[in-house]
């Protein structure tokens, strides 16, 4: 039987992707949709300005959107996918966990809390067991797992593939798509014919989340990776797909061939939304490109290319679809991991 699932923030950019991914998903069934008070009471078709590249699923279009309150969500819902603005997530997500719901969240609130697992299933699946610590400490009947920021998800799997060489210093410079800011995030007057070399709080997220993801969990505590990470974030006028330029300095010598092999052979998982291969390494020097490569692996693969040895270590480019692998697909994958590990 499919797990009954609710979507918080169902009308937004990530919420719509969640609907698109969950509707055909054999393990989950959409049973509740929430958004702001201005959407509550409307049918999903009326409330959501649907912009995803497939029709609104018929059965979802006629569902009624409710306010984002645990009392509005049926008790037989077992799993909640949250794509709320982080200020709203901080206010309401803990209430869902207290009420017994298991929450797989995109929002940045709480990502760096010691007892909240921040998980990319192919990178650090074992961190999910931090939920035992979380339940002890918070006394929740439910639980909270987070996926990282979309630009963190894009480069961390490539670092995980290179970790065996000893990660010392990482520099990453991003070229991020406008959908990463949500539908109302960046006005067309700001971004057309332009690039904006600032995305509020984004650099800190890449620097801190990457160290948490690549840290060690000993069953009681999580220690963060000691590598130094420096990030520079830029918004550019692409719709979907974050492209990133990365330089990695390692303890051991890292050649282009060894790095390409490590990325190509980095294992995928036996979860429905995990693509195989996880990392697609291009030989062509001008790839990956957002428009051409963001849908690799149904939008769940990481693309890499342009590998070269430089005085600042190994340099390469990587790319991921920010609203699929970087957001909605990431939480669905965490939902699959929660199910596989018996947390639902
Ligand atoms: N876009 C990405 O690529 C991306 C990637 C990773 C993580 N994220 C994170 O995912 C979250 C959602 O991002 P988004 O891009 O989907 O944002 P968005 O398009 O602005 O959508 C926000 C959603 O939250 C709802 N909402 C807003 N205020 C609310 C309130 N006070 N109470 C209840 N619901 C409220 C909105 O409902 P209404 O329609 O009723 O206003 C809408 O459903 C954010 O935390 C973001 O940082 C986004």
Task: Give a verbal description of the structure.
This protein is α/β, with parallel strands linked by helices and 344 residues long. Helix content is 29%, strand content 23%. The strands form three sheets. It has a six-stranded parallel beta sheet with strand order 3-2-1-4-5-6, sandwiched between helices. Strands 10-7-11-14-13-12 form a six-stranded mixed beta sheet. It has a two-stranded antiparallel sheet with strand order 8-9. Strand 8 (216-217) and strand 9 form a beta hairpin. Helix 1 crosses helix 11 and helix 6 packs parallel to helix 8 (202-213). The longest helix is centred in the C-terminal third of the chain and has 17 residues, at 324-340. The radius of gyration is 19 Å and the shape is globular. NADP nicotinamide-adenine-dinucleotide phosphate binds next to helix 1, helix 4 and helix 11. Residues 9-15, 35-36, 38-39, 68, 83-86, 88, 106-108, 149-150, 179-180, 182-184, 322-323, 326-327 line the site of NADP nicotinamide-adenine-dinucleotide phosphate.
What would a concise description of this structure say?
This protein is α/β, with parallel strands linked by helices and 344 residues long. It contains eleven helices and 14 strands. It has helices at 13-22, 44-47, 58-61, 86-98, 130-138, 150-162, 188-191, 202-213, 256-265, 290-293, 324-340, and strands at 3-8, 28-35, 66-67, 79-82, 102-105, 143-146, 167-176, 216-217, 222-223, 228-235, 242-250, 279-281, 302-310, 313-320.
């Amino acid at each position: 039987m499919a797990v009954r699932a609710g979507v918080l923030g169902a009308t937004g950019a990530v919420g719509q992707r969640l609907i698109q991914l969950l509707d055909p998903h054999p393990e989950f069934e959409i049973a509740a949709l929430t958004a702001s008070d201005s959407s509550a009471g409307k049918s999903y078709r009326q409330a959501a300005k649907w912009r995803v590249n497939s029709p609104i699923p018929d059965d979802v279009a006629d569902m009624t959107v409710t306010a984002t309150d645990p009392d509005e969500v049926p008790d037989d819902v077992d799993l909640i996918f949250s794509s709320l603005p982080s200020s709203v997530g901080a206010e309401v997500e803990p209430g869902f966990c207290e009420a017994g719901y298991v929450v797989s969240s995109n929002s940045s609130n709480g990502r760096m809390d010691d007892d909240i697992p921040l998980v990319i299933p192919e990178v650090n699946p074992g961190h999910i067991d931090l939920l035992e610590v979380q339940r002890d400490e918070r006394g929740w009947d439910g639980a909270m797992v987070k996926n990282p920021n979309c630009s963190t998800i894009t480069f961390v799997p490539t670092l995980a593939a290179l970790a065996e060489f000893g990660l010392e210093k990482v520099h990453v410079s991003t070229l991020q798509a406008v959908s990463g800011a949500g539908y109302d995030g960046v006005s067309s007057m700001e971004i057309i014919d332009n690039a904006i070399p600032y995305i509020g709080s984004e650099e800190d997220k890449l620097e801190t989340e990457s160290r948490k993801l690549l840290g060690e969990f000993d069953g009681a505590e999580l220690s963060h990776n000691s590598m130094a990470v420096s990030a520079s974030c830029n918004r550019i006028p692409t719709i979907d797909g974050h492209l990133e330029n990365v330089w990695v300095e390692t303890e051991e010598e890292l050649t282009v061939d060894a790095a390409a092999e490590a990325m190509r052979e980095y294992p995928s998982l036996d979860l429905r939304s995990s693509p195989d291969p996880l990392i697609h390494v291009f030989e062509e020097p001008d790839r990956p490109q957002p428009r051409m490569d963001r849908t690799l692996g149904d939008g769940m693969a990481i693309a890499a290319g342009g590998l070269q040895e430089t005085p600042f270590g190994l340099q390469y480019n990587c790319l991921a679809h920010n609203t699929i692998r970087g957001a909605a697909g990431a939480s669905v994958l965490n939902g699959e991991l929660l199910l596989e590990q018996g947390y639902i």
